[in-house]
Amino acid sequence: MRNIASNRRVSIRLGSAILEADAEIPEEAFAIKAGQKALYEKYYGPASQAKIDDWFELSKIIELTPVKMAL
How many structural domains is the chain composed of? Predict the structure, then answer.
């Protein structure tokens, strides 16, 4: 998290592909809640907001924006 605060550019490996992205920790509550809900429900199915909040108590959502590469 401290790395993102000092340098937003990150490398991401998806399978064999390595991509560049700008990372950001969203401050807007709606974006955080929506991201947490989507991630939790993808792996575990529907749940109450209380259960999702408990699951993410010690976690942070990081928003990644891919960097367009010149061809």
Answer: 1
